[in-house]
Amino acid sequence: MDIFFPKEPTQESRATILPESLKKIVDSGLDVLVEKGLASNINIPDNLYIEAGALIVEDIAKTLASADIICRLNKPTLDQISLMKEGAIHISFLDPFNESELVEAFVKARVTSISMELVPRITRAQKMDALSSQANLGGYAAVIEASRSLAKAFPMMMTAAGTISPSRVFVVGVGVAGLQAIATAKRLGARVDAFDTRPVVEEQVQSLGAKFVKIDIGETGQTDQGYAKELTSDQIKKQQEGMKKICSQSDVVITTAQVFGRPAPKIITKEMVSAMKPGSVIVDMAVSTGGNVEGSISDSIEDVKGVKIIGMSNLPGEVAYHASQVYGTNIYNMIEEFWNSETKSFSIDTSDEILSGCLVTHEGHVVNKLLKGS
Question: What is the extent of the structural domain holding 215?
């Protein structure tokens, strides 16, 4: 059985898999094909993939048409799906809630598609949770990017010329990305405040040495998957009013709030931005799903009366080597979990608690319950 790893688009700095994870797949008994230059963006030569047991290919159309399993980071094009053979398995991030045409193309081609962002957040699936592994690195990269753009040092410093006060960082949203942002800002010496609609995360914030900001917005909670539930318009207004003062005192604001399968909520208003000191920095980690900040633009840095609003859609790509490393491990764990070494096949059991969550299409039908109900 062939498994193919095509190269990502030129604007993507990450690669799907590194040689060490690929070797594990080879050792499992699969024939591994890699597009030439798969990881050239992170300076990993093809010969390391050859040493790991892969075959380097250049005829992508032919390989897509023959491969049994295709693994990549980003979603394929419609033309690429049309080349895939019936019964092939495609694994990648797919954004299926916003890519109905893509889903329909998989159905038409009778290709089984697995969406990595739909891997359920259960204990058994933690090792495959690519959304969390990328968000973790994204949270780190957001703080590093903010520190580059801020004309201040993060830590308090005692100097002969006097004391330098620590920068103040405010993190909005305490999921995987938010927790890493808090930890990174604290390691750099900043004073950190954090807010989340879920009071249950207060202990986690405090364990990292940050202050949890309490704003009474009424009853909130989280989904079974651990995501924050969507707020009402009144709750968002109360949240914004409570956050305005903290934003005005902060040197850096990092927003991470996303609602699964829906556009990101607008949390930081133009009024809140105007209340911040000139020279302050905002990093909108949700810019790729609509953004948390009014005025943020994907892959752009906007200057609003001296306040920089940074909208980077691929923050994990700023640390591309490690982002590729962990994603490749997630992919290997997915393959290893469902690879049957006796039959030399990838087992598709639609009742499996992991596959039932992340399987999008199978045998010419949309099989994901969330998609069928959306």
Answer: 136-313
